[in-house]
Automatic annotation (TrEMBL):
It catalyses: ATP + H2O = ADP + phosphate + H(+); Couples ATP hydrolysis with the unwinding of duplex DNA by translocating in the 3'-5' direction. Pfam families: UvrD-helicase, UvrD_C. This is DNA 3'-5' helicase. Its EC number is 5.6.2.4. InterPro entries: DNA_helicase_UvrD-like_C, DNA_helicase_UvrD/REP, P-loop_NTPase, UvrD-like_ATP-bd.
Length: 697
């Protein structure tokens, strides 16, 4: 029985068509493949096609699909859908070959390559520079560059020429060249290709075997329902086509906790979602997918719903905010907790300070309680005396420690006496309850945005799943840490050493925006949650665009006006309101921009509030941008007075280390906001620019 496979490029093109045409194509293909079961598929041969195995399939009066017919087997691969004449021209210009390194199928536009080569040779005569001078032929060949591509690679003098060849060169060969051009070594490119070392070379004439190997570019459709599901979400390419390095992490079996790291937009969430889905397919027990905010939880939930087409599998996946899980476990035993408000907490610290006549501030004691006592499960004076106070800066002598411990003890004692709880103590109690249980609620736990979870939340998760293969899977990037939590995974009982993978290729942002944003963090020493330093080296994007626009103004009202003008210009150029995001550090400025846009009749919403996300420009704090992305992004109010905000920074004289950590965190917050942009980034300020921007503007 014939089976249909769909190439990634085809689904991308399909997503750009009008909805009625998309519906028509879907209907036609479903009907054809249903009919094929009984009567075979009717397809036309194409005269003068580059390969005699191309066939055309009629979609309607105007549109044709180009299909690769099998020589052996029964898989028909839909390569493209285009207006009639373009479809036939496509088939005449493009050939299919098998990549020597990966054994996967590749499309190349032979006609354009033949036309371009003489021009490239001519341009190269004018300059001695060669883009790949440092890479020898043997390495290029090992990376799959074949004899047709090699002469082209050897004439290239700059990356702009390589970029221009992207639509015409064989995809995997272009990826390998782009990796080398961005500074990766041949070894690094080899490992990114995810190429399996084979004993025997691939049969480069066997296109059918190559199709079967190309799971990162060709998806095999599993019946009409699957076809409808694929075509219903043509923009969610991540759902179907994973990069080999992503796929390897999704499919791996780990003997214990494992994690994936990587820069912004490298697909960590995508990997986490696929992995959760795969684990849920393989077990009959529950799988938890979790993170630290409810907005992120909602978007993980939406992702899981896109992936899990089987209701049984979907049922097995519980997507829950980690605090909600803590409260749920707590309530099952104790009922609803009575929570201490943050104002009451400050008041309580203040009364303890007064009563004990202590020389500490409320903020200092609260932080000491959270970052030392709770983080390290300190329950006695002796524990506290020997607890690590890394990152707490201000040194305490023995007497001072005794005073602090007395305050912490009184604080907890009051909570106990009045039966009051904070989110942290609820979490601690839930952990205790889970640690007592043999029947853990989950078989697998997948955690996204791991860098922002506090130690007590990690302990909760550790206690919610039994030790075992694939128990915990963690996705995160410490360069995007936007809250206070500095966790050593080992200290919370989670060992990932030797089970850590890294993703480098950014799918979201242009190379220009990524490169600019990475400079915000240059020189920062950022831990990797496992006793080492993380690094930004090697993160890259193969997509190019405009560099970010940075602009300062004399007054805030001029700045607001400019941001509103820019949003209007984006809208006028055809960008949908839902594809535009605006981030500010302080809410007040966000409100001003929102009012200005509202005055101009632009639909606008505060993040997380209105439901009609697709129809409105989104405004939110830089923190609220975590996990989101927008085609166009304005990051406003990046002035010296606002970024970093004085109130968020511990004064140097109070605590040097905490001060430094606060500054680093604020850099990360700005980095997160800027890396939400896919195509266009505007960064503005009034008066003096933020010190973080000074080297960049
Ligand atoms: N294999 C893929 N094919 C197509 N698109 C992909 C792929 N992997 C990731 N993407 C897209 O790249 C973007 C970023 O992915 P994702 O959110 O998973 O990255 P991330 O590493 O979690 O980012 P961040 O850390 O910045 O939140 C998304 O738009 C996602 O759909």
């Amino acid at each position: 029985m014939p089976k249909l496979a769909i190439a990634k490029g085809c689904l991308q093109q399909f997503g750009e068509l009008d909805r009625p045409l998309r519906e028509k194509i879907t209907e036609t293909l479903v009907a054809k493949f249903e009919a094929a079961t009984h009567t075979g598929i009717h397809m036309e041969k194409i005269a003068d096609a580059r390969t005699p195995r191309y066939r055309s399939i009629r979609i309607d009066q105007f549109y044709r699909g180009i299909v690769l017919a099998p020589e052996t087997g029964d898989v028909y691969t839909l390569l493209t859908v285009l207006p009639h004449d373009d479809a036939y021209a496509w088939a005449r210009r493009r050939d299919l070959t098998v990549n020597r390194a990966t054994g996967a199928i590749e499309v190349r536009d032979v006609t354009t390559i033949d036309e371009t080569l003489p021009q490239l040779v001519k341009a190269a005569e004018a300059t001695p520079e060669r883009l790949f001078a440092r890479v020898n032929d043997a390495d290029l060949t090992r990376l799959g560059i074949d004899e047709s591509t090699l002469p082209i690679a050897r004439t290239l003098t700059d990356t702009a020429q390589l970029d221009a060849l992207k639509p015409v060169l064989p995809e995997t060969q272009w990826d390998a060249l782009a990796g080398l051009a961005s500074g990766l070594s041949p070894e690094q490119v080899w490992s990114e290709l995810g190429a399996e070392i084979v004993d025997e070379p691939y049969d480069t004439d066997d296109l059918d075997a190559a199709v079967a190997r190309s799971t990162d570019r060709i998806v095999l459709v599993d019946g009409p329902d699957d076809l409808m599901a694929i075509f219903a979400h043509p923009f969610a390419l991540w759902r179907i086509y994973l990069h080999p390095t992503q796929q390897a992490v999704v499919d791996a079996t780990f003997r214990g906790p494992a994690r994936v790291t990587g820069g912004p937009g490298t697909g960590k969430t995508v990997v986490a979602l696929h992995r959760a889905h795969r684990l849920a397919q393989q077990t009959t027990e529950s799988v938890l997918v979790t993170t630290f905010t409810s907005t992120l939880t909602d978007s993980l939930h939406a992702g899981i719903k896109l992936l899990a087409t089987s209701p049984e599998v979907l049922d097995r996946i519980d997507v829950q905010h980690v605090d909600k899980l803590a409260h749920q476990i707590f309530r099952e035993r104790h009922g609803a907790p009575q929570l201490l408000s943050s104002a009451d907490e400050t008041q309580l610290w203040s009364s303890i300070i007064e009563r004990l006549e202590l020389p500490f501030t409320e903020a200092f004691l609260a932080a000491e309680w959270r970052h030392v006592a709770l983080a390290q499960r300190v329950s006695t004076a002796a524990d506290y005396l020997s607890a690590k106070r890394t990152g707490r800066g201000r040194r305490l002598g023995a007497n001072q420690k005794a005073q602090v411990w007395q305050a912490l003890w009184e604080f907890e004692d009051t909570l106990r006496e009045r039966n009051l709880w904070t989110h942290e103590t609820v979490c601690r109690e839930a952990t205790r309850l889970l640690e007592e249980r043999d029947d853990k609620p989950y078989r697998h736990i997948v955690v996204d945005e791991a860098q922002d979870l506090s130690p007590e939340r990690w302990r909760l998760l550790r206690a919610a799943v039994s030790d075992g293969p694939d128990d915990l899977f963690i996705a995160g990037d410490t360069h995007q840490r936007i809250y206070q939590s500095h966790v050593s995974l080992r200290e919370v009982g989670i060992r990932v050493t030797g089970r850590s993978s890294r993703l480098n290729l950014n799918y979201r942002t242009t190379a220009e925006i990524l490169g600019w944003s990475l400079q915000l963090l240059r020189g920062e020493r950022i831990d990797d949650m496992d006793g080492q330093l993380d690094s930004i080296a090697g993160y890259r994007s193969d997509v190019h665009g405009m560099p970010p626009t940075t602009k300062g103004f004399g007054t805030q009202s001029d700045e607001v006006g400019y941001v509103a003008d820019t949003v209007q210009a984006w809208l006028d150029s055809g960008i949908a309101p839902g594809e535009i995001g605006i981030a500010t550090r302080a809410k007040r400025l966000g409100t001003k921009v929102q009012d200005e846009l509202f005055k101009r009749g632009v639909p606008v919403r505060s993040l997380g509030k209105a439901k009609d996300a697709a129809d409105s420009v989104s405004i939110g704090s830089m923190h609220a941008m975590k996990g989101l992305e927008f085609r166009c992004m304005a990051v406003a109010g990046v002035g010296a007075k606002q970024v970093p905000p004085t109130a968020a920074i511990t004064p140097v004289e109070e605590d040097v280390q905490t001060h430094d950590r606060d500054i680093q965190r604020e850099r990360c917050v700005l980095f997160v906001a800027c890396t939400r942009a896919r195509e266009d980034l505007l960064v503005t300020w009034s008066e003096e620019p933020s010190p973080f921007l000074v080297p960049l503007v």
